[in-house]
Amino acid sequence: MRWRFTPQHSLEGGVAHGSLNLESVIESDDWSTYSSSDNNRERQAHILALWDLCMGGDPQWLHDVTADYTIWSFDHGFWLGGEGDWDLASLSRRATDPWQYDLDAGVASASGLRSAASGVLSLDRAAVHRIVESIPVEWQIPSDELSQVADILYLRVEGVANRLEHAATRSNFA
Q1: Model-level pTM?
Q2: Angle at the Cα of 29 from the Cα atoms of 26 and 78, rounded to 5 degrees
């Protein structure tokens, strides 16, 4: 695979990421399409938490038709600032900004949003660093940059948790 996103950024073949291979799926960019199926209202709350924490963009969801349309995230290319704005300076400037997407989309359950908020709040700086440091060395990202990204993500923790808690108070679903 080789794809040029901008003149200075391209994807190279090699180790990228791994996820569950879902054979029978429907793709959607609408949160509410299968919200009432399976445990999606809970799952969506946790996806929202991760998406907010990582400043995600370009919503793309897979629904596994063989498992009651469970929702899964994919194509994380527009996370960490979205739309190709990945330099450390711009991420630092946006570190404490509210997320660009509405958490009050009315799809996640209040209990799921509270659970996700609790999970986000449980992330201490060391945990965020351990997660970021697990990025494969084959990606050739300098360790100082990874450390800065971890610090940026950690700066978002409190705001993300607050937004999730606030969304829980307005959810139409227990």
Answers
A1: 0.81
A2: 115
Tell me how many domains the chain contains.
Answer: 1
pLDDT in tens, 106-126: 789 999 999 999 999 999 999
For residue 10, is it within any domain? no
Query: 13 in a domain, yes or no?
Result: no
Query: CA triplet 168, 171, 174: central angle to 5 degrees?
Result: 85
DSSP state letter for 120: H
Q: Which residue range forms the structural domain that includes residue 64?
A: 23-165
Q: Let me know how long the chain is.
A: 174
Is there a contact between 8 and 71 (Cβ–Cβ < 8 Å)?
A: no
Is there a domain that residue 12 lies in? no
- 144 within domain boundaries: yes
Sign of CA dihedral 97, 101, 102, 107: negative
